[in-house]
Prior knowledge:
This is Type I restriction enzyme R protein N terminus (HSDR_N). The protein is an alpha+beta fold.
Amino acid sequence: MSYRDFDLRTVKQQLGVHIRERQGVFAAVPAVAIRPAFAELLAETVPLARGINTEKARSELIIAPMLVELRKQLQHRISLFSGIEFNVDKQHGLNGFCDFIISASPQQLMLNAPVIVIVEAKNENIISGLGQCIAEMVAAHCFNSTEQTPIKTLYGVVTTGTAWKFLTLEHTTVVIDLDEYMIDQPGKVLGILHHMLAALVAPNVASC
């Protein structure tokens, strides 16, 4: 068993998480300003990804540029990993590959704790990715604890590139925001990602 074998039912049954659904969890988070150069980039890549319409295209042309822009805005105080193996507890199925992992450590050559955000890319079906994302969040919690860098709140994202859904994990409770945020408002999506990282990056890091 691996991350991709989990759905919402199995994460509840096998990992003991409690799932709550709420609306407007991140509604009050402000958008950040978008650089003109990045807006121009998205104007080119988003229609292309929509035209190709595969998970790989959306991951490479929308999701990865968004996360690279986030890292740039945070002055490289975070590290970003794509498609890496994240084996934490094979006995419980917490093993396999993660699409994207964001760590609050600036070191890029290896994954260091604390892991704070797990981003799972899905092609046109966000709901199908929720269980896998939650399993990866539980693994991140275990990883942080083992590395003696526990954090109160872990975050998860399931996205098609054009639609973004956000989750939180505290202790054993997962909250799924019922709202989805669209790539047509990239400042809002980046604002929420900034909010997720704000408590763990240096206070002198600019937010835009």
